[in-house]
Every structure is written in C-alpha cells, then in structure tokens.
Amino acid sequence: MLIWGSFIVLIIIFLALDLGVFHKHEHVIKTKEASIWTAIWVTVAFSFSGVIYWLFSSGLIDNPTGLTPNNAVLKYITGYLIELSLSIDNVFVIAVIFGAFKIPPIYQHRVLFWGILGAIVFRALMIVFGVALITKFEWVIYVFGVFLLYTAFKMLRSDESKFDPKNSFVFKRLKKIYPITATLNGHDFFVKRMGVTAATPLFVALVIIELTDILFALDSIPAILAITADPFIVFSSNILAILGLRSMYFLISRMLEKFRYINYSLVVILAFVGLKMLFTHHIEIPEWVSLTVISVSLIVGIITSLLIPEDKATK
Question: How many Å apart are CA 63 and CA 72, to the nearest integer?
C-alpha cells in the first residue's frame, strides 16, 4: 500500500504544480508550449519504467502475475503506448465538444484539468473492477476480446464528423435536470442571475468530456488488460497517459485534419489486442511483438497521412 500511496501522492503533486504554478494564470496555450509539455509528460512516463524495474526487482511491490523486472518494464511501456494511441481518438471528440459549445482557447486548459482529475478517479475504479473480474473469472478475457474486435469494427465503419454534442443524450438530460445558460461568465462553471444558479457552457463541456472519457475507457481498459493483469502496471501506465492528454490535445488538435489515417491505426491496434485476448490461452505472443505492432501501426498511420495529399484521399 505504501507504493500505491506514494504514486497517488506523486500524481496529486503533478496536478497541483500544473494548475497552481505552471498554469496559475489563464492563457492560450500555443503549439510551442504544448510541444514542450508533451515532451515533458512523455519523458516522465518513460522514465517511470525505471521505477517499475526497481519495484519488481527489489520485491517492494506485490507481483501477483509473477513478472520478471524486464518483462514488467515491457508490459508497462506497451500499456502506456496503447493508452496514448487510443487517446488520439479522445482528442478529436474533445475538439468537437469545445467547438460546439464555443469554449475559448483561454479556458480550455481549465476544463481539461478538472476533466482529467475526474477521469483518474473513474478509471481507477474501472481498473480495480476489471482486474478483479479477470483474476476471478478467466473467461471474462474472452468477453473483453470480442468487445475490442466489435469496437474496432465500429470504429472502422463510423463517421465521427457526425457527432454533435448538443444533440447528445447527456446534454438533453442535463438541460432537464439543471438550468443552463448559453453565455460564458469568465472561467466560472456556474453563474447566479436573478436568484437562479445556472451552469455555463464550461460546465456542460466538462460533464460531456467526463462521460465521453468513461466511454473511451470501456475500450482502453480492456485493451491494456490484454497486456497484463498486474494492477499497478495497468494503473500507472493508464494514469500517466491521461496526464499527458491535455498537452497532447493542444499539440495535435490543430493538426487533426492532417492525420486522416490515424483512425485506421487505432483499428489495427484494437483488433490486434482483441485477437490477443481471444487466443491468450492458446498462443503466447511476446511483449516485443505487441510493442512492435502498436508502434508500427501509429508510424504508418502518421506517415501515410503526411504523404498522401488530402485531395487524393478524398477521390
């Protein structure tokens, strides 16, 4: 419990420094700043693999799956890359939500901060229950495998451009439950006018982003559970990927149109992980193979998007 407590305290310190020091004053985050912060979060995440090696080699943490230190590091890095790659789809939806509710760039970091804080809590609960299910009922891994294959197929057939947050079930229900104002009031989530407290578009965007992240977690949590059922590796790789989501959003949200084929990369990754789950008790796939498939899929998607002009892609 000491290791878990220390990791959670570390995350709290990161979040406090982020909002209370580095982003104390609201400002529009430019591409250069986003690039620097993305590099910092990625460096922190990869550096944490050294901590993983130390924990598993020293025996300071429970090792229910019997991982060697080297294998633990490979599983951690693979899990982190899966979470990071699946976050790209999340970035697209967040951009659509901010656009629909006309959230100015200066307030977007504030919304994402509280959104990611909530995402950490919800994902922690989902990881605990997911690991418990797989540990107690081994057949659940087949259910997760089929679900990931279905998700990959649905992602291949879907048209994300049709997503409209203002027509979503969440927005319609929220309007019936709580008063909503159409105008912003600085960075406030609520405003009181004529004795009535109403939610601003900032709060509405926050709620929809939060619930959307839970839906994305239904894909990402089973995906990482296909790599390992070790709770600490699943939790740490997932949370460190989430912490880098804000800077990654400001970095790639302006370039989403250029990465038109990334969606196919995510389909390949989900399909591969789903098949790995279905054949987990029949075929042992080395971690370096999983790491290679994920890395190559992302690289091919990015390179293809950059090399094929948009006019040729649409013909």
Answer: 10
pLDDT in tens, 185-220: 888 888 887 778 888 888 988 988 888 777 777 777
CB 172 within 8 A of CB 187: no
The answer to whether 87 touches 238, Cβ cutoff 8 Å, is: no
CA distance 177 to 282: 50
Residue 202: C-alpha distances to residues 2, 90, 220, 292 (Å):
37, 18, 26, 40
Q: Is 198 helix (H, G, I), strand (E, B) or coil?
A: strand
Grouping H, G, I as helix, E, B as strand and the rest as coil, residue 197 is strand
By the 8 A CB rule, do 235 and 132 touch? no
Angle formed at CA 265 by CA 220 and CA 34, multiple of 5 degrees: 75
- b/e map 13-25, b = 16+ CB within 10 Å: eeeeebeeeebee
pTM exceeding the 0.85 threshold for the entire prediction? no
Place of tokens 């220390």: 6
Distance CA(130)–CA(226), nearest Å, equals 11
Tokens of 15: 């979040």
- The torsion angles phi and psi of 142, rounded to 5 degrees, stand at -70, -35
Q: Where are the domains of the chain?
A: 34-313
Mean pLDDT of 24-52: 87
Q: Work out the burial of residue 113: count CB atoms within 10 Å of its CB; fewer than 13 is exposed, 13-18 middle, 19 or more buried.
A: middle
Would you list the DSSP string of 240-297? HHHHTHHHHHHHHGGGTTT-TTHHHHHHHHHHHHHHHHHTTTT----HHHHHHHHHHH
